[in-house]
Request: fold
Amino acid sequence: MTSAPTPAAGDMPMAATSFVGREREVDRIRSLLAESRLLTLTGPGGIGKTRLAIEVARRSARRFTGGLFVVELAVIRDPDQVLPTIAAALGIGDLEGGSVVEALSHRFGESETLLVLDNFEHLLPASDAVSALLAPSQTLRVVVTSRIPLHLAGEQEYAVGPLERPTPGLPARSLRQIESVALFLERRRAVQPDPDPSDAELETIAEICRRLDGLPLAIELGAAQAKILTPVALLERLENRLPALAEGPVDAPDRQRTVAATIAWSHDLLEASERRAFARLGIFIGGFGPAAASDVLADAGQGTGDDSLPALSRLVDHSLVQVESETGGQLRFRMLEPIREFALGQLSASDLDALRDRHLTHFMAFAEAEQANERGEDQAGWISRVVAERDNIRAGLSHALSRSDGVRLLRLAAALERRFWLASGDLSLWENRRWLETGLALGGPAPAELRGKALQRLAQTHAVAADRMVGALEEAVVEYERAGNEARMGETLAMLGEVRIYRGELDAADRSLHRGLELARRIGAGPQRLVELMVPIGILAYRRRAPGLGREQFEEALALARRADDAWGVAKTLGHLGRLALTEGDIDRARAGFEESVAVARRIGDREQVVMALCSLASAGVASSEMDASRPQITEAAVAAEKLNWWYQVRVLDVMAEWLVAVGCVEEAVPCLAAADLTRRDTEMDWDPDRVATRTALIEQARKLLERSTFESAWDAGQNASLVAILEHAGKVIEGVDLGARAAAVTRTGDPLLSARERQVLALVADGRSDGEIADELFISKKTASVHVAHIKDKLGVDSRVEIALAGIRLGLAAPAAAERAPRQATTATRQEKRARRDV
Reply:
């Protein structure tokens, strides 16, 4: 037996193009190769398995002193020819009566050797030959590329995924670092060596890479068309991906000259029943779970329920379906978009229409079942599970609309709470509103209860306290009454009452809430329904400045929520009680309530309540001059609010302005105040008088402390920028404030870190107001006013109201004339203070 000389490690096939990206994957595969003698790179056609295997081999050359050998197997069809093909590739021509395995074993010798077997998926019966090669050659390591694993003992599988894809909204300057975009740009330069693309072109290229799901072959074929198509023109053609990616290099293998041919190569390896399953699974957009797969595979020759899972498993083995992630304890699967398009192309028009009906039915039932988890300990799981199906849900809504099926459209749309749409990127809730309005307009035999539910959902899409919100809720009450559903009537009346509070219609709110409460008690409603009513009744008492300011109602609601394990009710009610404590000057109790509210809201994934509680917690920190502790709370709230609607963004701007003014960054606070003020004036709300008073005081203070031109410039900037832009800018300012330097400046200048409320109280003290008059002016209790005066004295280091007035003049918080009024009224106020201390 003779053999050719051992090739050097450099005798690797030379790549015609550069290797782009996948650095982490190369490192991971090299580490796996150090641990495993048989490593199989799996993945769909065009994913880049061959290129990755060769790059790993090239970078491992020093380790494999016995040589690196790459054997291409795509051209052979007979599994019995695998070993002879390997022998021929290694230059073994004359076996002289010995076996091929013996000859190859001798050829590999005792040195570390790497053998790459490329494209093994159609030769699986020859898997035993790989085991036979490894058995006698302990220094041999084999890397196999295959769309299907070999299922051999000791095999380490590594699934090669798509290239990194750009997330929507990523700045253009960051797009070049994204692997899929970098590959497109590199291959584009080969056919069009023009100057670098503009930012607009980069964003279009990023969308192309997203549409192609990061599939390297598809991206390379797309980039090759740069000679005749601009990025915009190519993107338009990608409405149908496969025809748009028609031709690759003429020297490429036939199976890799088009994306369709690459997928067809895998499709042809499937059994007939697997092809039917493959075609049906193409109906899912963005992925699917096992239950959804079972529903669409039923009657496809795959059985029902768990009987369909073997077909899914085989498609995963063939790399036509990817195992993507785990949601709610269940694995999710998906097809890359070019593969999904190919799968749908295997269905007739009638089969596709019937399959879309089945798809709609499944996701309608799924969304309706998940409604039970909208509130409670599983809220985070609910939002995660439902948002994972957002593309399928949108497809289901579109199909119902195309069939003018108003009832099923309304059932699916009404099953989706607004937080689903917010988490899906619909921050204005425009899409949410459009589907509900469309379903209601289509009419048909929709039951009154379904119409009532849809109208409830529709009301939640409108701005707080808008006329359309009230109208939708009033109509929902009528529909529920017509349906005889008194429980839903009570729930809607609670919503209507709260909306009317925010419109300033306190008497109408009272009627709605007490009608709802009477109804709830008559039918024996559960604690959650009572919580929904007691909270707005407490808000109403607070607005009316009733005795106790709603504390009794809030505490009753909290007790009910705790007994019922109603986490949503606990978080919301704690927020109201904390705010009441803050109004009364009991900062410790306020902080404890806000902290628990944040913790509960985080646990259940209630982002809206997290933002509100964080803002209140930060306000408590500002009130007690704990600026460093409140900074990260504001930052977290601002980041979360960017994915919520304007109501929450305005709340964050309020607390940002408080914080900035308190640390002396008055000019930077003005855009926050201006943006919030503009948004408030554009709404139909009767805003909380406490917050209005705080905002007004901050604006007045800024006017006093800044030059007129400076104030007006900052104000105009705030009114001409988006809320998100102001949030981001103010967030950067807050992060950059050096509180140590600020504290040193306070020491030098004597400028105390007074909260916004304390500055309001200081100005009123300087104006000669008594604690009772201050309480009336600021809608707070007299006790709270006295607490604020005491805090101001401590921070200023003074003992009397006259000294407070003089300090206010020095700090620019009071007019000089105040010093003349303060002495005349100080005696009366001092007597009041002494009497109050004696009474205590």
Summary: The beta strands are 38-42, 67-72, 113-118, 140-146, 155-159, 322-327, 330-334. Confidence is low (pLDDT under 50) at residues 1-10, 248-252, 301-306, 822-840.
